[in-house]
Amino acid sequence: MVWYIVNIFVLKSPIFTNYQFTINILKLFxxxxxxxxxxxxxxxxxxxxxxxxxxxxxxxxxxxxxxxxEIIIGKNVCISQGVYLVSAGHNxxxxxxxxxxxxxxxxxxxWLGAKSIVAPGVRCKEGSILSLGSVARNxxxxxxxxxxxxxxxxxxx
Length: 157
Hints:
By secondary structure, the protein is an alpha/beta fold. Helix content is 13%, strand content 32%. The protein is globular and about 40 Å long.
């Protein structure tokens, strides 16, 4: 419960705070965070204890990290404004509509364009790019640019 209050007043706040202050708060709640991280204001992280962020990574304004399951962000990653990372959904085929969770892995050197979405269980492999507003429902191959909904391989990076 304490995390929800901290998340609202520190991370979800549109008021800029010192990056290191935000990082320290995340670490206090169990996130594994590397060095030289930039975390912009007005972001939402559901469970910091399920989050890993590698060195030299950047998280833009309005990012929503819906990490019911683990989300691993590698080194030198750019997560642009308004990106949505969602690690869970519901099984619509069952009457119980039970929750299904799957880890997301964003490998080193990946760029997720503004307003893009990464679905549960997706691995964005090293150097891949997900273009503006695209939706990754399947793994992204290394060093390729993807675009669209669902995201399709566009060209070599």
